[in-house]
Amino acid sequence: MEITLYFLIAAVLLVIIFAKMALVIIPQSETKIIERLGRYHATLKPGINIIIPFVDKAKNIVVLKYGRYVYSNAIDLREQVYDFPKQNVITKDNVQTEINALLYFQIMDPFKATYEINNLPNAIEKLTQTTLRNIIGELELDETLTSRDTINTKLRAVLDDATDKWGVKVNRVELQDITPPATVLNAMEKQMQAERNKRAQILTSEGEKAAEILASEGEKTAMINRAEAAKQEAILQAEGEAQARIRKAEAEAQAISLITEAVGKSTNPANYLLAQKYIQMLEELAQGDKTKTVYLPYEATNLMGSIGGIKELFKGQ
Questions:
Q1: C-alpha count within 13 angstroms, C-beta hemisphere, residue 213
Q2: How far is Cα 75 from Cα 59, in angstroms, rounded to an integer?
Q3: What's the sign of the alpha-carbon dihedral 295, 299, 303, 308?
Q4: pLDDT, tens only, 236-288
Q5: Distances (CA, A) of 258 to 40, 209, 251, 254, 313
Q6: Rounded mean pLDDT of the chain?
Q7: Which band of pLDDT confidence, cut at 50, 70 and 90, is reported for residue 316?
Q8: Model confidence at 200, in pLDDT bands (50, 70, 90)?
C-alpha cells in the first residue's frame, strides 16, 4: 500500500515537471528558436507554447548584455542599441582619429539571426568598425568633422545591406565623438583663433572704411548745402537789391512826375532836384568835424543857376 502511494506521488510529480517543461511562456516582443532532435522545428510566438520535453530544445544564441557576450535562448525582437568602444581610424590626410559610434538595429528574422551567423553582436561590431574605417579613409579631417550626417547615411546603407542576410535591420547609425589628436586640436585652435582675428581685422577695416566714406559723403553734402545756401542768399540779395533799385527808381520817377506837375513844364525839374542835392550836401559838410572848410562844386554857376531856377519857381507861385 505504501509502495503504491509513493508510486502515485512520484507519478504526479513527474507529470507536473513534465507539464512545466512542456509549457513555454514567451513574453511580448521576444521569441525562441526550437530544435527537435537537433534540427530546426519552430519559432515560438509570444504567449503559451507547448513543446515536447527532452525532445524539443531552445537554441542558444550569443547576445550582448551589460557590455559582455553571453548565451541566451531568448531572442529580443525590439530595437536594440550597441554602444561600440572607441576605435582609431585614419583619415585621407593621414590623421589618426578616435571615433565612437552608436548602432540601432532590430532582428527581423530570428531564424536567420540564429543560423546564418555564429555571433551576431560581434559580427555587427566588426562590420561597423571596418566599414567606418573605409568611409573615414576617403575623407579628410575637416570633412570628417563637418560631415557627420553624410558618414551616418553611408554607414547605415552599407550595414543595412550587409546585415540583411542575417535577418537584421539597421535603422540608424550615430557618431557620438570624433576626437583628433591633441597636437591636431591645438593646431586647429590656433587656426580658428587666427581666422577669428583675421575676420575681426577685416570687419574693423571695413567699418573704418565705411565710416570714412560716410564722413566724406557727409562733408560733401554739407559743402553742397552751404554752396546752395550761399547761392540762394546771393540770388535773393541780388533780387532784393534789384527790387530796391526798381522801387527807388519808380519812386524817383514818381517824384519827378509830381515835381513836373508842380513847377510846370516850362521849368526843368532836373535843376530843382540837382539844387536840392547840392543843398543837402552842403548841410552835411557844415555839420561835420571840419566846419572851417567849405566845398563848392567846380561849376558853381550851375548851382547858382539851379538856385535861380528855384527862386523863379517860388515867384511863379
A1: 6
A2: 10
A3: positive
A4: 888 888 888 888 878 877 777 777 776 665 556 666 666 666 677 766 666 65
A5: 144, 72, 10, 6, 14
A6: 80
A7: very low
A8: confident
Interatomic CA distance for residues 200 and 80, integer angstroms: 48
Residues present in the chain in total: 317
CA distance 257 to 282: 26
Cα–Cα distance measured from residue 155 to residue 139, given in angstroms and rounded to the nearest whole number: 13
State the maximum Cα–Cα separation within the chain, in Å, rounded to a whole number: 193
Three-state DSSP class for 120?
helix
C-alpha cell at 207: 567699418
Outline where the chain has alpha helix (H). 2-22, 110-115, 120-136, 141-146, 148-163, 182-263, 269-286, 300-316
In the block, residue with C-alpha cell 542768399: 233
Residue 87 pLDDT: 83
Q: Which three cell numbers stand for residue 224?
A: 553742397
Instruction: Summarize the confidence of residues 130-136 as an average pLDDT.
Output: 87
Q: Coil, strand, or helix at residue 231?
A: helix
Say how far apart CA 147 and CA 91 lie, in whole Å: 13
Q: Which residue has the cell 517543461?
A: 21
Q: Which residue has the cell 542599441?
A: 81
State whether residue 164 is helix, strand or coil: helix
Q: Which cell numbers hold the place of 218? A: 557727409
C-alpha cell, 166: 542575417
Query: Cell numbers at residue 221, please?
Result: 553734402
Distance CA 131, CA 170 (A): 14
- Helices 269-286, 300-316: inter-axial angle, 10-degree rounding: 120
pLDDT at 181 over 60: yes
Residue among 82, 67, 74 nearest 114 (CA): 74
Tell me how many degrees the CA angle 146-150-154 measures, rounded to the nearest 5.
Answer: 145
